[in-house]
Structures are given as C-alpha cells and as structure tokens.
Design a protein that fits this description.
The protein is α/β, with parallel strands linked by helices and 484 residues long. 43% of the residues lie in helices and 13% in strands. The strands form 2 sheets. It has a 7-stranded parallel sheet, sandwiched between helices. It has a 7-stranded parallel sheet with strand order 10-11-9-12-13-8-14, with helices on both faces. About 6% of the residues have low confidence. The structure holds adenosine monophosphate. Adenosine monophosphate binds next to α3.
Length: 484
C-alpha cells in the first residue's frame, strides 16, 4: 500500500493523484489529509509556499463535498486571481475521476456577470479572491447557506494585502457550523487574530520551521551602486548558464518593471514585465509565455507576482529590497518549490542594512554576502559552455563538403590559435562584460542606440565622482564590519 493510499482518500481521488504523478504525499499532505477527512474540527496548517498545500486541502475536499447538491459547500479564499486560477485548475485535476464536482474561480478584473451565471448553474466549490467574493455576497449572487468548509489559503498574504475587512465579512456571512481550514506560511499577529475570533479549538500542523524560509533556497546578497545594478544583475545571470536561469526579478514600481524588461530584451534576453497596469488578459498572456518558457526572465512587482505557481523557478532576484519585509518570504518562496533548489539574490545598497537585518530576522538565518561575479568568472563560465557546445555540435553533411576551402584559408593557424580566435569571437560578444552602458528607456526595445557610450560623467553616473565613490566604499566597509 502506498503512502497516499494510507491517508484515507477515495479511489477516484487516488486515481487522480496517480494520474498527476504524485508518488508520495508531501509532509503537510501526510499530516493534514487524515485530520481533514476524519475530524470535524477547525484546522491550521503552517507551511511554506510550494509545499503542496493545495493538495493538502484540495484532495480531502474532493471526498467531502456532495456533488449531488448544486449549492456551494466549500469556499476557498486566496490572495490573488492567479492563485485562484491555479487552485481551481489543480482541483479540477483532482476531480478528474470523480463524480462531477464542479469548481469555479471568481476574482476581480473579470466579468462578474459571467461568474454569477456559472455559480447559478450549480457549483460545489468556489475559489475566490476576498474582494470579489464580498461583492458577490453583497449582491446575493452566491448562496452561502450550505457552506461547510471555508479554506483560507496563504492567510498571511491575504492579510498583508489588506483584505482584513473582506475576510471578516465573509467569515461572518458563512454558517456558524462551518469548518475553517487556515493555511499560512507565517503565524503573524493578524493571522492569530483570525484563529482566535473565528476558529474553534483548531488542530494545528506545523511543517518546517515556523516563520522561516524554505531550506531549499540559498539566500545571498551583494552590495551594488544603483547605476551598476543592471550590470550586476547580468553578471549574476551569466555566472550561471544564462539559458538555464528561469527567474523572477522583483522591482518596486510598475514603471521599473517595464524599464528593466525592455532593457533586458534590448540586450537579447527573453524577458517581459508583469505588473498591475496590465489588463487581466495581458497578464495571462505574459504568464503563459513564462510558463511555456518562451521567456525566462519575468520582471514583476510584488502584487502582480503573488501566488505565481511555477515549480522550476531557479532564481529570484530582488532588484530592490521590498519595502515591506513580509514580502521577502513571498518573493523568495517562488523558488525552491516542490523539492527543487533555488537562489534568492538581493541587489542591495549599503544603506539597506536595516532592511537586510530585518530580512535575516524574518527568515531566521544569516544571508550570505557575495561579491558581484567578476568578468573573469563570467568568461570562465562562458568558456565552459562554449566547450560543451563545441563538443555537442551536430554534424551537417552539406557543411563537410565546404570545409576544404576554409581549411586552406586557416592553414597557418595552430589548434591553439584557432581556439583562441573562437573564444575571442564568442566571449567578446556579451554585453555583460561591459562596464556600464547608457540606455534610454524611452526608446523602444527594437531601436538600438547607435553609440554605446561607456560609463562616464557624461551619462550622469554620480559614482564617477571621487567623493561619492569614497563615501560608498566607506559605508560598504562599515556595513560589512558590522555584519561580522
Ligand atoms: P502548492 O504548495 O500546493 O502550490 O504545490 C506546489 C507544487 O507541488 C504544485 O505544482 C503541485 O502540483 C506539486 N505537488 C503537490 N503535491 C505533490 C506531491 N505529493 N508530489 C509531487 N508534487 C506535488
């Protein structure tokens, strides 16, 4: 009997689990599923994002709701529309072999009338953002009389986002005998308040270290002058195999996301911006491109990137430290998911020291300082990739016939000469080895500037000035000393 079979799930649900290729339950699933299936109590699950929480509540829900009743029996509240859609998609997978459990996602920014029509047709489970659900309740478009399960997913994030009033109103509107299942990465003050006010002697399951970040994530920071941040970012990307970096770069403002994504595209990366200025359709399009890996560098604001559920993200870059430190764990939680390893890299300024210490407190461990990878490191990395590519290059028979002439023309070069020339030619191409180059964000990504000026007083870099540079070096040293 497999571990999943021992949890008490029905045959159709187990079949769905098998079809998804889940071999073993994750820790939170192993602990939560039997409790949720058997118990009539409220439930608190404290676990990081990416630990399989959706299946921990979604699989038992499949077996607990009655598909014959057309009124909603379970409400799932999640902080963002993206997460609502992801939960709904996962739950639909779980119900694949079931007796017709219907699930709908309702969220702001989409046609409310269409959502009302779907609910009216009869659904058992609603996954919703708090704002839109409150709207529906106020319009009496959703009948809560038969709600038995109210799931709060990523409760800390919902409260951080300011959904307290909406959550209070929804919790009060649902029948008092409902069971509340609360999932959260952290037990913040606000989350505690919810558990006290609305939950009745809940069972609590803690997975991993509470309030701590996922152990699969390596947290590092570097110190960089604002004007050189972009170069630093590129160096970090190139110090891995740039094609294999699959990352999110977090910026503070919507405008920054667009500027940075344009700059990256201009430099030949596959990138796009995700921010709240985009329509839902445009956001979906960007997410689809990212999920299908048509782009590998997503530049996003905190709000837009909430709940992004892509398992294989290798890097999270903090182009700016988040103003609200709570966002740090949510950002870095986008990587190191489902057992994968991930890197969370902060591009900090020495004046960010207080925030860095706050982040360390938040994740419960030190963040390691690393130097910006040097040009030598980048060249070395690129050279190994070049060698691998050379070895792997596939034969093209038509080309073989053309090589005689080329052989003659290069006959005076030794193997060493040839290798050197190939290396110069290939490695010299990358922009990442340049000092700093001017970039005009107002120009579109298609129109490359004619001259590529290097960093100088002419392009307004304040750090070319000796005084400013010295001050920067001094505060950097002071900060590093303090950290030791
Ligand atoms: P979640 O924390 O619910 O967002 O899940 C993170 C990812 O892990 C999702 O893509 C799930 O499909 C995947 N996942 C959840 N449970 C399992 C499992 N038992 N085995 C393998 N993958 C899983």
């Amino acid at each position: 009997m497999s571990k999943f079979q021992r949890l008490g799930l029905s045959q159709p649900t187990l079949k769905a689990v098998e079809a998804l290729g889940f071999e073993e339950p994750t820790l939170i699933q192993e602990k939560a599923i039997p409790l949720l299936l058997e118990n009539s109590k409220d439930f608190i699950g404290l676990a990081q994002t990416g630990t399989g929480k959706t299946a921990a509540f979604g699989l038992p829900l499949m077996d607990l709701v009655d598909p014959k009743s057309v009124n909603p029996q379970a409400l799932i509240l999640a902080p963002t529309r993206e997460l609502c859609v992801q939960i709904t998609n996962q739950l639909m997978e779980f119900s694949k072999f079931d007796k017709g459990v219907r699930i709908v996602a309702v969220y702001g920014g989409a046609d409310i009338r269409r959502q009302i029509t779907t609910i009216k047709k009869g659904v058992q489970i609603i996954a919703a953002t708090p704002g839109r659900l409150r709207d529906l309740i106020r319009r009496k478009a959703v009948n809560l009389a038969q709600i038995q399960f109210l799931v709060l997913d990523e409760a800390d994030e919902m409260l951080n986002m300011g959904f307290r009033e909406e959550i209070d109103e929804i919790l009060k509107s649902a029948p008092s005998e409902k069971r509340v299942w609360l999932f959260s990465a952290t037990m913040s003050k606000d989350v505690k308040r919810i558990t006290k006010h609305y939950m009745d002697s809940p069972e609590e399951v803690v997975v991993g270290q509470q309030n701590a970040a996922n152990n699969d994530i390596t947290h590092i920071y570097t110190l960089v002058r604002p004007k050189e941040k972009y170069i630093a970012l590129k160096r970090f990307i190139f110090s891995s195999n740039a094609d294999e970096v699959y990352g999110i770069i977090f910026c503070r403002t919507r405008r920054d996301t667009v500027t940075l994504a344009n700059q990256l595209v201009f430099d030949g990366f596959r990138s796009d911006a995700l921010n709240g200025d985009l329509s839902q359709a445009a956001r979906d399009k960007v997410m689809q491109k990212f999920k299908k890996k048509k782009i590998n560098l997503l530049v996003a604001t905190d709000v837009a990137a909430r709940g992004i559920d892509v398992d294989s993200i290798t890097h999270v870059f903090h182009y700016n430290i988040p103003e609200d430190i709570n966002f740090y764990t949510h950002r870095s939680g986008r990587t190191g998911r489902a057992g994968n390893k991930g890197h969370s890299i902060i591009l900090a300024h020495p004046k960010d020291k207080r925030q860095l210490t706050a982040v360390e407190r938040k994740i419960g461990s030190k963040i390691k300082f690393v130097k910006i990878p040097t040009r030598k490191v980048i060249y070395d990395r690129k050279l190994s990739i070049l060698i691998e590519d050379l070895k792997k290059a596939k034969a093209i028979p038509e080309v073989d016939g053309l090589l005689e002439e080329a052989n003659k023309k290069l006959s005076n070069l030794t193997k060493e000469d040839l290798l050197r020339q190939i290396a110069y030619m290939t490695l010299g191409k990358g922009e990442e080895v340049e000092e700093i180059r001017t970039y005009d964000p107002s120009k579109s990504s298609e129109s490359k500037p004619k001259s590529r000026a290097r960093s100088s007083s002419k392009n307004g870099n304040p750090f070319h000035k000796k005084k400013a540079r010295k001050k920067f070096e001094r505060s950097k040293k002071k900060f590093k000393k303090k950290k030791k």
